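On clarity, I found the account of how folds are encoded harder to follow than it need be. Since the whole study asks how a given chain folds, the encoding of that fold should be made plain. For illustration, here is how one protein appears when written out as sequence plus structure tokens:
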Amino acid sequence: MQNTSYKSLWLFVIFLCISVTMTYAQEVQITGTVLDETDMGLPGVTVLLKGTTTGTTTDLDGKYSINAPKEGVLVFSFIGYDPIEMPIGNQTVIDLRMNPNTSDLEEVVVIGYGTAKKRDITGAVSSVNPNKLENENPNSVQDILRGNAAGLNVGLSTSAKGGGSLQIRGQTSLNAGNSPLLVLDGAIYYGELADINPNDIENLEVLKDASAAAVFGAKAANGVILITTKKGTIGKPTIKFNANAGLATMATFPDVYGPDEFVSWREDVFKSINAGGY
């Protein structure tokens, strides 16, 4: 009888352990929506089960779905926002709002092949915001760059439409061209800067060293000027009107000869041509 009691006790303990293990390992499907500070769906947020490599990302509407045990913890992380840890428990729907971390966001630099911390960037980049230069009333893109981007030499042009040559860190070639590569809204631009309306420009970036070649190849040997034009925004239509006025006058007014003076002037001309003869 005693042996039978011990066997029954051991079977009960084993059954209890199996039940606890199955309960702990039971997974549930967790769904939810991740919002930003403006209550808009935040796409690309990483949702990771803490302590594992199991995870997913939110879609364009900020929605996600993941299978995880009830005892697990979900970690929500996104660049520029504070990470959030949420215990699952008995929840099957977890919605949350991410809090922006402005100090971290200022240290992030977007480059052609991803993102990196500002302290890890060794390249020389100058940024010019034309919105701050509206009072200068630029007539061309060269007028925006002249004197506002360090290491960039902007020449002068006497033509009516303005312009001027561009050199990044001086002359870099004896026979070939020295002009930097122009990239307009992500596409290489082979036209002239004078053809671009400076009032249509949102931002200018000047890449001044060899790191630019990592994205644009050998064409970027003389540097790169990235031009971003203004885009439409959601909201009420806004009409902006910009006009320039000027006055052109002659510096001197030549005297007009009368009939006798004109004949006398012509005589003097022919005398000078024929060395005093007629």
